[in-house]
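Please go through the protein record below and explain what the tokens say about the fold. Record follows.
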Amino acid sequence: PASTFSHILARQSETSKIYQGIPLAALSSKVRGDVLADIVRGVMCEKYPSAEIEDALPGVCHNGLDRGRARAEYDWLHDGRRIECKSSQLQWKSAASRWIFRFSSVKSGLFDELLLACFTPRMIHIYRHGGLLGQSSKGS
């Protein structure tokens, strides 16, 4: 029975402890990423009310097949600029004894501007990445 493993099931990571009771944290990373991208896009619409903000053009895959909207090379257009939005939840990295944000699958060269949504237990921080700091091709 599960009660035999209660000591194992009761373990919580430092990350799960700080996000306990926060509904956005309970979502899968894919769904949370979609929600955060929608929030960032909404903030951009509010901040720049006269801007022309449109859905991404899906384009064509390397194999010649049409891309779906979810597989577009970028997330949306802002006054003709291709915007990519990536998100990350604050995570405890025990090996380094520090808190980190980790962004993955950033498709370099396929967008004009990268916006980062950093989800913390208290708020969502939005940063415009300058393209210089914090880049890695693999790992942290």
